């Protein structure tokens, strides 16, 4: 057994091996400033903190910067620049004496409000869906703002990644690339007057100094040639949270060679990526305080959950404890006889960066209220993040005397594989749970669709003595009015009102992810029997049916298609001499009264040619087409 992280823990097994590709970085500029990227500013306004809330300001600066860079804030219909509530994070992070859901009573345990935190504290709050909320929703310092309200807009980072530059700056380019790709990043430092030079507007704490970090700021750029108090050039451009008038404009520089900035394992450089509105109704989890320690040696772990309602599970989240970690997540229907049974969905890959990650399931899972389901995570490095009662020994913006934060767990929630059997995690630590979450949305009452034909594609061929299969595809667009299980895949089928022997077929609708609200179904022309009434102009009804692969719900919609015969250019009901004349005119680029009719008789696409002329002669002579 071993002890790793912020609370005690373990070592056991052998993990599977994954091939991990190398990362290739493009050449980076000698200087970069997110406030001016081709004339565009990707940094929100400098704020002025109250109390020891620098850590919340550093976190929110990074979140806001990502929202600004991606345009998600504006796409969500928000006005002005991104503006999230630092003090909602400060009050409701779950680690303080104001509130801890794992403690009984929930007050009086842990940190003092307004007296510090760190990026792992912030990550726990974000990843369980508590925030971040907008400034207008929950920005209150003197008194606690409401914890939640239906009117709140909650923003969720799909990924939170930790970087360090390395003692020899061997990984500094990774940080620079992340800044360019994803925007503002949080970092830490020790603020002390002797380390700051007002003349150069720069900070440098020598690596030999023993003082721990006590302040959080946000990195917004760099300059490889910047002079500081350090013996070598190069510095990070940083946004502080002491108001826009501090140091002239609220910004300053920290040397690349500073002891903590870009270097601290948990607070050196943190990127909040792919921030989006929180679309999930329930985030199933047992790790209220997030990553507090690391289990070493277990290749697989799982969490057991029970559905709170009829829902659709469409994503999972977890931490990776190192860079370049292969993973496989499988959702199971049962845990019985010491075995996980009946897999419902699986997803896998390699994650290049240590941190928190949200992954969409390629196939959604329908959850029924009160039913159990089990989310299993396998990692290539056989390490897994877990929550447990822990001490926060170093605070950004607070005292350095450490605070014990209570976590709670129950048997039957988290398990690990010891190489022989599944073991309950509480047997190792009664307060421990794995950081594996399941993200679900409420199921709509009904799957509802509408269908319509695309312009100019509202017809099919009817021929009694010819084979027309594959010569024309009528495009029917199916629109999803409501989804029982958003993001699920659909099986598509069609039926027609033609006689037996009709052989019209349809294409397949691909997996419909959230945001894609239409499916295009090609109805490929076949042969309709002689007994079917009507020439060109009579309706031919096609019924399109969608069946949800997760919800099992079925919806139908109908369209009327126009019947035509191959070679019937003028729409008289059958091909004749006049049609041949029109065809020859079109073949020779002479206008006809029917420019929009189909002259591509062999289905090859493009303008009519000699092969189409041969088809015209065949249908005029009642020759069965090949």
Describe the structure.
This protein is mainly beta and 626 residues long. It folds into four domains: 44-274, Alpha-Beta Complex (Cathepsin B, Chain A); 282-442, Jelly Rolls (Sandwich); 444-564, Immunoglobulins (Immunoglobulin-like, Sandwich); 570-626, no CATH class. It is 12% helix and 32% strand. The protein has helices at 54-70, 72-75, 86-92, 119-127, 135-138, 172-182, 577-587, 610-620, and strands at residues 31-33, 155-163, 185-189, 196-197, 202-203, 215-223, 235-239, 251-255, 269-277, 282-284, 293-296, 300-306, 311-320, 325-336, 339-351, 355-367, 372-379, 383-387, 390-392, 403-405, 414-417, 422-424, 433-434, 436-442, 448-453, 459-461, 473-482, 490-496, 505-506, 518-524, 539-548, 554-564. The strands form six sheets. Strands 1, 2, 3, 4, 5, 6, 7, 8, 9, 10, 13, 16 and 24 form a 13-stranded mixed sheet that branches. Strands 15-14-17-12-21-22 form a six-stranded antiparallel sheet, with no helix packed on it. Strands 25-27-30-29 form a four-stranded antiparallel sheet, with no helix packed on it. A hairpin with a 4-residue loop joins strand 21 and strand 22. Helix 1 (54-70) crosses helix 3 and helix 7 (577-587) packs antiparallel against helix 8 (610-620). The longest helix has 17 residues, at 54-70. It is elongated.
Average pLDDT level: 85
Main pleated sheet: 13 strands, mixed
Strand content: 25-35%
Number of domains: 4
Q: For the terminal residues, how far apart are their CA atoms?
A: 74 Å
Give me the CATH superfamily of the largest domain.
Answer: Cysteine proteinases
Note poorly predicted spans.
1-25, 509-516, 526-537
Number of strands: 32
CATH fold-level label of the largest domain: Cathepsin B, Chain A
Radius of gyration of CA atoms, rounded to a whole number: 31 Å
CATH class of the largest domain: Alpha Beta
